[in-house]
Structure formats: C-alpha cells, structure tokens
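Appendix B, Record 12. Input sequence as logged:
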Amino acid sequence: MPESQIFRLVDPILWTIIRLWLRKARYKAQTDLLRNWLSRAANYPISFSLDATDDLMLWVSRHPVEILTLLASFSARWKEVRFMFPDTACRCFDAIPSVKKSLPLLTAATVHLTVEQQLDLSMAPQLSVLHLYNFGLSDILAPWHQMQEFKFPCWNVWNISRSTFMPYTPKSALRQPRFDSSSRKHPIGQKLIPRLLQRVFR
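Logged structural output:
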C-alpha cells in the first residue's frame, strides 16, 4: 500500500463521521466497529447518524444500549448528531447522565421523540440547528434564542404556535420541511461533509 494511502487511513479526521445503520444480525460486530472507529477519531469533534435497516419498532422495544452508551461516552465531542428512531437520544442521555452537561461542541441535532420523553439540550451553547419530530409542548429544553434553523413536521404547527419558547426563537429560523417517510436526510454526510469521508456500517 502506498505511503500516502497509509497516511490517510491513520489521519484521525477521516474517522470523525459515522453513519451507522443498525442490524439485529450484526449488532455485536457493529458495536465493536463503532468502538474502534471512535478511538481512531482521537480528540476531533465527531458527527454521526444513527438509523436502522430493520423494522424500527424492533429497536424501540429493545434499544441498542451498548451503542448508545458508547456514543454517550464521547458526548463532549459531538458536533452534528442524528437520531432517526424514537427516543434513542433520550436513552443515550440516560445511559450516561453527565451527557446533558457535556455538549460543548454540538451545533446541529435531528431527534425523534415520543410524548413520554423530555429532551434537555439547554446545555449545548453552540446549538443552532434543530430538527424535531413527534414532540409536545413541554418535551424540549433548548437555547431557542440562538437558533438559526428549526425544522418541525406540519402536524406540530399547532403545538409550535402555542409554545412558550416561540417568543425567544427568531422567526427566520422556523422551517417546515416536506414530510417524506422514505427520505431520511440530514446535513451529515451531504452538503456539510465531503462524500469522501462518508462511511456506512451495513
């Protein structure tokens, strides 16, 4: 292998982006891969997307605790995060409670919730992009005054209009994306991050 290729593989910045598609059949292997991947990223900020190729309800009934604990242990380095199935963000925080106080680099988050869960992002001093799905009036604590982009589904418009955080959220930040159940798009690995650095665990 040429020296230039060896150099690229050991460069920590190449390991700072993770797109993880969970599979029940490969869960243990994926957990080991994630642990190795995170260790290779050294002290760089990390961006990740957590999704599943199986039926999402399988993961709702049995959350990937080991994966969530691993991700939570690196929360101080989260930059952009995307939790694509319900309540994984909350359970990630539950895995290591100190996560709620260790989000100094977080700038963007996409989170799916259920009405039973509350998400506290108020301790993320750089958070400016937030995409939320399936949330109620009291579900979210966040630094609303600094939001540059806030996206929510059309069925949450009524909740948004009555919410107490509205006076503190810049109107220019509000967005209503078109809902497409087959599309799971997020800046991670697309416009903000070069395709060269993408990696999908399948």
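The chain is about 25% helix and 20% strand.
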